[in-house]
Amino acid sequence: MNKSLLSAISVIVIFICNSFGTAVAAEQQAVKQHPSLVITAQDVVDMRSEIARDGRFKKEFQDKKSQLDSKLALPKQVPVPRDSGGGFTHEVHKNNAQSMYDAAIIYQLTREEKYANYVRDMLFLYADMYPGLPLHPQRKTDSVISAGKLFWQNLNESVWLVYVIQAYDAILPALTTSERKTIETGILRPVALFLSEGSPHTFNTIHNHATWATCAVGMTGYVLNEPEWVEQALYGSDKSGKGGFLRQLDELFSPQGYYNEGPYYQRYALLPFVTFAKAIAVNEPQRNIFSYRDGIVLKAVNTTIQLSYNNLFLPINDAIKDKGLNTIELVNGVAIAYSVTKDAGLLSIAKQQDKVILTGDGLRIAQALDQHLEQPYPFTSMVFQDGAKGDEGGLVVMREKDQALVFKATAQGMGHGHFDKLNWLFYDKGAEIVSDYGSARFLNVEAKFGGRYLPENDTYASQTIAHNTLVVDETSHFNGDTSVGNENHPDLLYFANKDGLKISAARVDNAYSDVEFVRTMAQIHHKQLAHPVVLDVLTVHSNNVHQLDLPLHYKGHLMDTNVALDTATQRLAPLGKKNGYEHLWLKATAKAAMPVSQITWLHDNGRFYSLSTISRADMKILFTQIGANDPLFNLRTENAFILRIPSAKQAAFVSVLEPHGEYNPVSELTFTANSQVKNITHQQVGDIDQVSLEFINGPKLLLLLNNAKAFDEKKLNKVKIGGKQYSFRGRFHLIDLTDN
């Protein structure tokens, strides 16, 4: 071979090698950009440094690694789906997603290939199974639009992909081109397309199911370099903006960050909202997602925290009452919000959660807590407006000392909403005192209806009688029709906090065709009262005669009443036949005691509580217990009493809830076990409600209310009581007559 030919061949070889080297370098450079969703490459550098020193982050890393090593020693399971929520296959696939996510993070922090290989091999198994899967056999029989393949509903499929795409993103540096192709074509792309093109009804709706779907598909689009998927996730399948993640931010939250379905579902939806927002911020910072709609994502995190008492979320609508501030959704939300805002109040919530996530945001939380930078979180009394424009009522939270009074004047809350306009709850000394049932469901307990909502969720928990609000003719608000309920909402008249009085009022004139009712809830603090008291004024107006029921569901043991009980001691009967009444045993009846009826119970927190209510001659009091027509024992056994006016066009229910005294069984100490309410009076003259409260050896108060529809705040209200003239402007006026 001559020199010229050798020289030419050498040039060609050098060119090919240089080109191949350039391609490899380019590929390596692309790989170096991963992870690139919630965790970034810089986060990984910082986290690796942090696990080299003692602190919260290192401890979490060691704990997670130890747990994961135990899992990796077990055989991999990817069973053919067959079970609904809580069943074996459901839990295996859910746990596989979490394990893959954890292993991918540990791989990034240790660079030990066994963790990346675990994720890779698990995804190989899914890639082999998923393309041939039909719709899940346990999907809801009445519809296939919400069905999944791995899971009984596509919501769970979305949650699965949210975790799995982050795992895949983190192990990309350890995969060959062939391995990536197998995983992407066999499992990641099929799941993403099933959730978007294959489930357009869910993907494009304005609902928490769609939030999870858009988060999953959008993040998959970022990782697989599919910008079209990202656009569809943001703006809907047709990219018109009628659906998608941004429309959900516009429609599902009020301007203050209150989520339409209530705190329980706000908690659940929070994770995809903050996760996708963080991924958008990392990949497309120019979108300024955390500033979108005046920082609505960050407001949502804070509102979720505010809508809690003693660590648990306020259980309105379809709520499971055990969920609280330590849920993983809020752990992520607090970490991401703190990274953006550096709000030291969030650190106190993170400290209370006592859990650190292995992300860059979790790292920043851990470092700040190690430096003791936390400040008390400012829980406050306020209105959380409902509706996209904040004009569809709201949830009022009044806090005083260790009390919280919750006044529910919200919109329906879509399919998870209950028929309980102007319902209320009360908490004191760390406990629920006036309660709400929440949802009838044992989440992921397969033995109880597959972990789904029980039939009694419809027949009892969502019906009006299950709540602490007005029931007319034993019929639920909006006749139990969710679509009608979604079209209507209460009018929140006002909220104020001044001079020892927190007060709010709202009106409902559409829950029943010919009935209007207005409710005023007030939390009154006075120096002569051992504890703040709650005043409840509910007025009813109709052109026709109706039966009016006002239930109060209480936690504790009935201690005393001033009414004569006719108690069923031999045989029980249901209170009614439908609308939730069929689930209530009627345990006792009584005629109201004139002029004020009083009922006292003792809570496990060691405090007594009395409800004192103005009586009228025809008022009855019904004592009930849940459990009738419940053959499978699906419902919890809880107690209530119902104030009943059998026949009236106009009525006023005026009551005072009074915390008092103490019972200590250890020291055998009991004091102030009896109510200190001496008298309550009420009359309505024109537009003004006049309510007087008098306590034994305590204050005498007069509250004047103007809840009129046609209200002029500039007009001077004038009333004459006992020969004395009172005047005030505005909706209310509290007068202390103690020394008069």
UniProtKB/TrEMBL annotation:
It comes from the Bacteria. GO terms for molecular function: lyase activity. Keywords: Lyase, Periplasm, Signal. Residues 387-646 form the Heparinase II/III-like C-terminal domain. It holds the Pfam family Alginate_lyase. SUPFAM superfamilies: Chondroitin AC/alginate lyase (SSF48230). This is Alginate lyase. It comes from Cellvibrio mixtus.
